Amino acid sequence: MVRKVPPYTALAPVYDLMMSHVNYRRWANYIARIITRAGFTEVRLLDVGCGTGKFVQEMRKLGYQIDGCDASPEMLRVFQERIPDARGFCCRLPELPEVPAQRYNVMTCLYDTLNYLTDQPTLLQALQCIYRKLDVPGLFIFDMVSSFHCQQYFRDYVEREVLDERFAFERRSHFDVHQQLQWNRIKIFTPDGIFEEEHQQRIYDFKEIIELIQRETGFIIKDVYRDFTFRPVRVDSGRAHFVLLKRPGHP
User: Fold this and answer.
1) Where does residue 238 rank: exposed (0-12), middle (13-18), buried (19+ CB within 10 A)?
2) Gap between the Cα atoms of 244 and 242, Å rounded
3) Within 10 Å of residue 109's Cβ, how many Cβ atoms?
4) How far is CA 98 from CA 46, 53, 93, in A?
5) For labelling, which of 21, 64, 127, 224 has a CA lying 20 to 30 Å from the CA of 135?
6) Class for domain 149-201, per CATH?
7) Residue ranges per domain, the chain?
8) How many CA atoms lie within 13 A of 221 on its CB side?
9) What count of other Cβ atoms lies within 10 Å of the Cβ of residue 65?
10) Residues 222 and 38: beta-carbon distance below 8 Å
């Protein structure tokens, strides 16, 4: 019998095995370069949607003071086992009630975490929350994937893999072009049974996000980069990193 569970519940113990292809060191180096280019030197960093903490671990190797925040208690448990001296806040966007205001002057939200907010009002609420929580001057770096990326890689995608002697998984992905929704149904095969998680993400147009930020938040858009480069985003970009500033004098 397959048991349905919330996202990142049964996935937590096997997440790092599933994501072993992700180069977190490269991602951390890229984010560190963005922080430096933005002029931030004394950095107090919070990673929103930190998951199991692989990115946080790599940033710590680079010398950053960084804590984590995640909506999944199961993922956060792995995070805290990995980095015992880091603070871990368990709370969910669009609000972060456990995160102290003005403690952090840099926040990141990566690996398409904000795509899990599937309507624009909720996304805006999250952006405004992060703006309030940031110290001044502040820096917020987040990424999103594009419709181009989803159509190219996940339109109708099936993946099966035996992870080790205890765990295996099956992922079925579908991208609804008309609704701009990405669906991922993941079965995790464990010694305790078979679990299924359903993940839904809204794939926003980058121009739509830029206009929303400019119109409805106090953030100043410094840059929007494409595909782990420092070149401007384009319509055929797979992933965009948004670099936003909170400056003194802005409400």
Assistant:
1) middle
2) 6
3) 23
4) 12, 18, 11
5) 224
6) mainly beta
7) 2-145+205-246, 149-201
8) 21
9) 14
10) yes
Which helix (H) or strand (E) covers residue 79, if one does? Answer: helix 73-82
Nearest alpha carbon to residue 187 among 47, 10, 68: 10
Considering only the top CATH level, what class is 2-145+205-246?
alpha beta
Report the alpha-carbon distance of residue 177 to residue 157 in Å, rounded: 14
Question: How is residue 45 written in tokens?
Answer: 């960093």
Distance CA 54, CA 27 (A): 10
Helix axes 73-82, 54-61, angle to 10 degrees: 30
Look up the pTM and report it: 0.95
DSSP bridge pairs for 194: 2, 189
Distance, C-alpha 64 to centroid of its chain: 18
**How is 35-82 classified by DSSP, letter by letter?**
HHHTT--S-EEEEET-TTSHHHHHHHHTT-EEEEEES-HHHHHHHHHH
Q: Answer for the pair 122, 102: CB distance below 8 angstroms, yes or no.
A: no
Q: Mapping DSSP to helix (H, G, I), strand (E, B) and coil, where does residue 127 land?
A: helix
Tokens coding 100:
């102290």
- Chain segment 28-42, per-residue pLDDT in tens: 999 999 999 999 999
